[in-house]
Amino acid sequence: MTATVAFAREVDVLVVGAGPAGLAAATAAANSGAEVLVLDDNSAAGGQIWRNGIDISKKSGSSLRSKTIAEFQRSEAEVLYGRAVFDAPHAKTLRTYCEASGEIETYVWKRLILATGARERFLPFPGWTLPGVFGAGGLQALVKGGYSVAGRRIVVAGTGPLLLAIAVYLQDAGAEIVAVAEQASLSALVPFAAGLLGQPSKLLQGARYRAALGNVPYQTGCWPVAAEANTALRAVRLTDGNETWTEPCDLLACGFHLVPNTELAVMLGCALAGDFVAVNDTQKTSQEPIYCVGEPTGIAGLDAALVQGRIAGLAATDKLDEATALYGLRDREQSFGRRLDRAFTLRPELLNLAQPDTIVCRCEDVRYKQLQPYSTWTDAKLQTRCGMGPCQGRICGPAVQTLFGWRNTSVRPPLFPIPLAALTTSASTTSHEITELQETL
């Protein structure tokens, strides 16, 4: 078999992730004179929140988005799309799979900034895998990609401040929002809203979203218990703990806040603090010289991600005085994140939604009752293949952690499924796991 010539490139600062935090970090580092390269696995920059890409000639709907993108484009930072980082075979070396070319590429960095974002948390309940049931953010992303919801009746359910924003987005796209069901209680949300008096822009933003929904019910202390379908979704059953009722709908958009994407950081040996990557004041991780910004260090919203990115970009280029000047702003935004955690803590009733036959791992069709005999996720994986499908546990992992308290203790390359053809024709294969696989083949 003839091996292809390995693609290899060395840069001063490598940023993984082109969402707001990654763009801010890249801009700050590039403006400090460093050669900066940004890698992203999507086809356009912007991350989940700015999924439309970074063409500011399009209607942005956000002056902050336009400002951030314009600053990035004025910098000398470069961004490459469609690159999924899956391996770190040597110190200061990452390997990516480029879907467009089908080839594996190697990047060598002097300093690395991880801005890998977050994903939705899904909790299993009867019917959650039916056609017509989407993640709330997932449905929004599909609509941004051209999926039409015009005239569709949609229930938006789960938890977190994004529910209102997504409901408004879907309504603007022509959907009829039947209800927004927020599992957090009113008694938890009132102090959260009161705490925003010191950040009036966030309070005003939430008020605008609620006003835009008009007479659409926003039901607190309410959550889905089942989705019902014939050939297509026809209704969702909701409860407030006292009563249960059925809401007819065509689609259910359901997400229970966010969980951080920490797999790459863990594979690189970065220490965690709870579920998040531990960082110091400069956003540096326990591994030298790796920085981490945005949701992997704590779910605290867009403003926190942007200022963390700027701090990391400055610190990575030794502009410590400028980075230090931003600590106060960063700390205020992180306090918002702590209030988010308190307000939208999952209620214990959600841990009892799954029934014995409810699918937990949808990649491998593993049901709740199949997991109950085991005490760790490793045992469950070995016996049931839970978490061993194409998503590599990214969907079911947070669910089993919530339901059973199990954590994924095994993060290793490849982080994403890679075609065997790419692995077997790459001349740059160096990691032990992949080398052994090739020898077996």
What does this structure look like?
The protein is α/β, with parallel strands linked by helices and 441 residues long. Helix content is 33%, strand content 23%. It contains 15 helices and 21 strands. β12 (223-229) and β13 (233-239) form a beta hairpin. α1 (20-31) packs parallel to α2 (63-74) and α1 runs parallel beside α8. The radius of gyration is 22 Å and the shape is globular. The protein starts with 6 loop residues before the first strand and ends with a helix.
| CA-based shape | globular
Spans of at least 5 consecutive residues with low confidence:
1-5, 54-60, 429-441
Rg, Å, rounded = 22 Å
Query: Termini, distance in Å?
Result: 12 Å
Helix/strand-derived class? Answer: alpha/beta
Q: Summarize the amount of helix as a percent range.
A: 25-40%
**Average residue-wise pLDDT:** 90
Main pleated-sheet profile: 7 strands, mixed
Oligomer: single chain
- What percent strand? 15-25%
Count of DSSP E strands?
A: 21
Give the helix tally: 15
Name its key features:
441 residues; alpha/beta; 7-stranded mixed beta sheet; 5-stranded parallel beta sheet; 15 helices; disordered N terminus; disordered C terminus
What is this entry, summarized?
With 441 residues, this protein is of the alpha/beta class.
Topology:
Blueprint: E1 7-16, H1 20-31, E2 36-39, H2 63-74, E3 78-80, E4 83-87, E5 93-98, E6 103-114, E7 118-120, E8 133-134, H3 136-144, E9 153-159, H4 162-172, E10 176-182, H5 186-195, H6 200-212, E11 218-220, E12 223-229, E13 233-239, E14 244-248, E15 251-256, E16 258-260, H7 263-267, E17 272-273, E18 276-277, E19 290-292, H8 302-315, H9 320-324, H10 327-343, E20 359-361, E21 366-367, H11 368-371, H12 377-384, H13 396-404, H14 420-425, H15 432-440
Parallel strand pairs: 1-2, 1-6, 2-3, 6-19, 8-15, 9-10, 9-15, 10-11
Antiparallel strand pairs: 4-5, 5-6, 7-16, 12-13, 13-14, 17-18, 20-21
